Amino acid sequence: MTAAVEVEGLVKEFGDRRVVDGVDLTIPEGTVLGLLGPNGAGKTTTVRMLSTLIRPDGGRVRIGGYDLVKQATQVRRLIGLTGQYASVDEGISGRENLYMIARLLDFPRRRARERVDELLEQFDLVDAAARPAGKYSGGMRRRLDLAASMVGDPALLYLDEPTTGLDPRSRNNLWDAVRDLVEEGTTVLLTTQYMEEAEALADSIIVMDKGRVIASGTSGELRSRVGGQVLRIRTARREHLDELVRRLSGMRVRNFRVDQENRLVSVPIVNEAELTGMVQVLAASRLPIAGLDTHLPSLDEVFLTLTDQPRESDPDATVVLRRVF
Ligand SMILES: Nc1ncnc2c1ncn2[C@@H]1O[C@H](COP(=O)(O)OP(=O)(O)O)[C@@H](O)[C@H]1O
Ligand SMILES: [Mg+2]
């Protein structure tokens, strides 16, 4: 597979602060990379560098085979950017915004009108097309941002926290729109503070904190670093719970957690053989069971585990992360 984006040792300094500190990442063509991290991690700065808006202080970047700095013009032709602070003009209508961008991109008048109609249709903005963008709801505004970044049909799309502040329904609509673009072959770099969003859209995920990559992999791989599955057993009655706990202790099952209120026992499971063994023992015990399921740690749990050690340089780091997530 050809790499649409290859980044090695990317650095950005503001004054004496290194806000992007040696970031490596690769986005294969036609895939979505989720760049996940709390506020201030350096996500937007990374996207701005990869968009040619600001110049890196170090590192090497190739986009579609072009050098980011030496061949910036070619790079710009490949990318679309939907920012946290996108450049939509609030005083004119959605249609006028898109038309203006199409003309800026040198579309002839008629082709510009056609492209605008396509995009209004694609992003479900036909009814709102004539209204000033400033009057749009949050969800409509983000769809207009996305449409604006797609006018030139970019091969590579940057989405910088595209759903921050959106209600769940608008968020899902936007996710669907992004999935459609990916299906048509667009390569996407998505920044987000939401594990769920990275998991919903990204083929692979990079976790960034304080300018550095602290973990990477698929959501499954990130999860497995934290632990395997957890078997949850709910007993029918309180006294059954006590009996279950006695038997598990007798079986030398370790590290299980008991939730008295919900009559729930959670047992960490390392492999399938262990899971099978547990279920057989449960069946043989003939204890009445009200519920049984397996559960994977959420990405939020994963992130907290990955970042749980406060650093010498910043004892508040963990507190901040807990608040953000
Ligand atoms: N133009 C700038 N000048 C000085 N500091 C900046 C500038 N842009 C961003 N920063 C700082 O760099 C750090 C990373 O910011 P940013 O890339 O916006 O993070 P994120 O998008 O992950 O929230 C923050 O501490 C921010 O205050
Ligand atoms: Mg940002």
TrEMBL record:
Q: Which organism is it from?
A: Saccharopolyspora hirsuta
Residue ranges the record marks as coiled coil:
none
The GO molecular function terms of this record are: ATP binding; ATP hydrolysis activity
Q: What GO biological process terms are annotated to this protein in UniProt?
A: daunorubicin transport; doxorubicin transport; response to antibiotic
Which GO cellular component term is one of those annotated?
plasma membrane
Question: How does this protein lie in the membrane?
Answer: Peripheral membrane protein
Kindly give the Pfam families that the UniProt entry links to this protein: ABC_tran
Q: Which family does it belong to?
A: Belongs to the ABC transporter superfamily. Drug exporter-1 (DrugE1) (TC 3.A.1.105) family.
Q: Where does it localize? A: Cell membrane
Output this protein's name.
Answer: ATP-binding cassette domain-containing protein
Outline the extent of the ABC transporter domain: 5-235
Per its UniProt record, what SMART domains does this chain match?
AAA
- SUPFAM superfamilies assigned to the protein according to its UniProt record, in alphabetical order: P-loop containing nucleoside triphosphate hydrolases
The UniProt keyword set, sorted, is: Antibiotic resistance, ATP-binding, Cell membrane, Membrane, Nucleotide-binding, Translocase, Transport
